[in-house]
């Protein structure tokens, strides 16, 4: 009897999985885009299986890869890799080779290799989800729209944490203030900062910075499928999240990209030259205003207090700790300049420092230490090709409908690249989806669909 019941249960589960999969395929690829985007925006949630950490994005990518294989086979479509995809695969192979040759503990490094391989896999899944021009527009809108929801949630979490409501009873549960719905509290910050549903506050800040720049571009280009009503709301939400994150790297990244946006967004060369001239004329005034804020604004404003620490970095504990780690990493790099040590080996080489495992947070230094110069070249190629191609298209063809979204993704990608030099997040799937969508832009070199 037990065997019969167990067999019946297995059959019911299999039939249920098959029914859900068929329903999912009927809504393909929009359903896949929604699931993947939701997963990469909720990377804070995870569980451990032994030494391996499994996140929502890992489960989503593996599930979607299986369904994607069924869909492509059903439609008779060959999967594509793209040139940026080849660079991503080269980066991963350089890391794997570095680990095989030099990792002090290859068994421990193997889990990092698998995790980073899943990130490359995420990019390949992303570029194969888009087969038509309208599907690309849908994917871009979903990526942007869920990002605005993340910004709203992060701002809400900060507001709720500051709300002193005492004690309330909801559905049989007792809630007490301060209520933490996604707030990071550290000694290095003057006040608590939101992380929303993302891994931590710095990553929330860099994501908000990319979305803020994207919102500004889309507001300037309302023809790209996002109305000014939504992009204006996006400017408000993402700028609030960007400021509240107290992430100095994300602040500086956005401030670096804003002049670039000012020069690039006009559709004709004469206006771009005029904007460049105005930029040079206004730069001294903007610099004076920034210095005045740093010198005279009250420290009672948390963002000002945080920004002012840039004037005294030699006394900033976070900066000094980073400098020490980067110095140790540089010694490792000099020992293995061409082929690195492998992912996750910094802690194997340097152990516990200041009561925490040694780790690297700068994109370039981390990848030089782990994959050597070979790995860094592949990573820069993967990142730079879609961004460069997107900006080149925006400069030389101002008429195509997707110019605004293309420029938004390209400049947002630059923000992520710069911000990740303070807190690297290439081990999370968000940037791989972002660059995957940019890679398959309509009219681009790697857009395979007929309308391109």
Please describe what this structure looks like.
By secondary structure, the chain is mainly alpha-helical. The chain has one domain (39-439). The protein has 16 helices and 8 strands. The protein has helices spanning 2-26, 30-40, 56-75, 83-102, 106-129, 133-162, 201-220, 228-244, 248-264, 269-296, 302-308, 317-335, 345-350, 363-396, 403-419, 430-439, and strands spanning 46-49, 52-55, 167-170, 173-176, 183-184, 193-194, 352-353, 356-357. The strands form 4 sheets. Strands 1-2 form a two-stranded antiparallel sheet. Helix 2 runs parallel beside helix 6 and helix 7 (201-220) packs antiparallel against helix 15 (403-419). The longest helix has 34 residues, at 363-396. It is globular and about 65 Å long. The model has no long low-confidence stretch (mean pLDDT 87).
